[in-house]
Amino acid sequence: MLSIAIHGGAGTLPRAEMTPDREAAYRAGLAAALDAGYAVLERGGTSLDAVTAAVRILEDDPLFNAGRGAVLTYDGHVELDASIMDGEYQRAGAVASLQHIRNPIDLARAVMEKSSHVMLVGEGAEDFALKQGFTLVPNDYFKTEAREAQLRRVLSGDRGPANELSALGTVGAVALDSHGNLAAATSTGGMTAKRYGRVGDSPIIGAGTYADNRSCAVSATGHGEYFIRAVVAHDICARVAYRNLTLAQAADEVVMQRLVAMGGEGGIISIDPRGTVVMVFNSEGMFRGQRTSAGVREIAIYKD
Fold first, then answer.
1. Is residue 204 a contact partner of residue 94, using CB atoms and an 8 Å limit?
2. CB of 279 within 8 A of CB of 236?
3. Which residues are catalytic?
4. DSSP, res 143
5. pLDDT-derived band of residue 179, with 50, 70 and 90 as boundaries?
6. What is the model's pLDDT at position 14?
7. pTM value > 0.90
8. What's the alpha-carbon Rg for the chain, to the nearest Å?
9. Which domain CATH number covers 89?
10. pLDDT in tens, 9-54
11. Owning domain of residue 94
């Protein structure tokens, strides 16, 4: 069974704000990432390669809050976080507070595969990137007019419509390959107007990303402070491993019950060793998609 799922963030625009053209653009971006990841699996590639390929495309798409098109900090620049995890050996790599790496997911993978560390941040991470042959890009590369206008509204005290993709947007992917190995990857620009070097759940292994062949792979999106406190990604996999819950049961308990009780908003995509995909969110919507060798191919935004 080959299987992949992707997300482009929880906390969509309300239906009344989503024009047909805008929805079509989001769906096209999700489709491009989903099909690129699945193509890797279809030709015998690894789940790590598949999630990397899918996330890289979403990082390059300015519609999503990762890479180019990421939200801006209080000071008007972009700081990016990402992580990746291998379900076979539980290897992991993460990066945070990047300002000049075009595709943070590639650097997170390099940390996993070419260093003895799990997480590198800021200037140290970018120094490591240079030593690995990465080319730095100017911070302006990531900025878009839409995100600059969004920051101006936030700083003026006008938060705009509810769920305006400002606080909850993140991208991610989970996959199962032909060798039976799981992987998960997550990348984000964080929260609009974030300050003080704030880092959310996306680069934190166990909170925003987790993969273990014995239970599941998870990529999360939402209000990161809550996802960190609840250790969402690991908690879901632990409930599968230790309580013998189905993935759907575990995800529901964590996202729809525990997080809601805490006041946390967001969602997850996940996959189990049989290739079953579970996508759960307690926000109005979550940009998401899944594709499997059983013939399933689905892209969705809202609950129905």
1. yes
2. no
3. 170
4. -
5. very high
6. 73
7. yes
8. 17
9. 3.60.20.30
10. 997 677 777 889 989 999 999 999 999 999 999 999 999 999 999 9
11. 3-302
Structure tokens at 144: 């878009």
Read off the amino acid at residue 194. Answer: K
Q: What tens digit of pLDDT does each residue of 201-248 get?
A: 999 999 999 999 999 999 999 999 999 999 999 999 999 999 999 999
173: nearest Cα among 219, 104, 221 = 219
Report the phi/psi class of residue 221: left, alpha or beta, with left for phi > 0 and alpha for psi in -120 to 50: beta
| Alpha carbons 166 and 176: distance in angstroms, whole number | 30
Q: What is the DSSP letter of 138?
A: -
Assigned token pair, 85: 């995890």
Closest C-alpha to 216, from 191, 262, 249, 171:
249
The tally of domains found in the chain comes to 1
Q: How many residues does the chain have?
A: 304
Please give the full DSSP string across 46-105, using - where no structure is assigned.
Answer: -HHHHHHHHHHHHHH-TTSSSSTTPPP-TTS---EEEEEEETTT--EEEEEEESS-S-HH
Percentage, residues of the chain above pLDDT 90: 90
Residues 6+ apart with CB under 8 A from 201: 207, 208, 220, 222, 224, 225, 227, 228, 232
pLDDT per residue as tens digits for the range 135-169: 999 999 999 999 999 999 989 986 554 434 444 57
List for the chain the helix, strand, coil content (%; round to 5).
35, 25, 40
